[in-house]
Design a protein that fits this description.
This protein is mainly α and about 90 residues long. About 50% of the residues lie in helices and about 5% in strands.
Amino acid sequence: IGVGGRRRRAIAAANAAEMGCEYFSTTRTGRPYKPAAKVNPAGEAVAEKIGLTFLAADFKKRDGFKRSVEVSNEYGLYRQTYCGCAYSI
């Protein structure tokens, strides 16, 4: 998991705590090359530090990535065309 991913997860967790949320999660496991086995433990570590519960998931299961593309298209949602790492830009 890259440094940027850790930073974004920490920011998301801090924002969730500030808003009074008890839980937070990530959509990163929906991407074909983001292994849930690495992403979820990283989220759980951040949650523990902040005092939240991380909702672990693997959104690739049952055609999750394909379904996310369909729903995004249906609702006109923005989808980033690159993973966000320095190499993809």
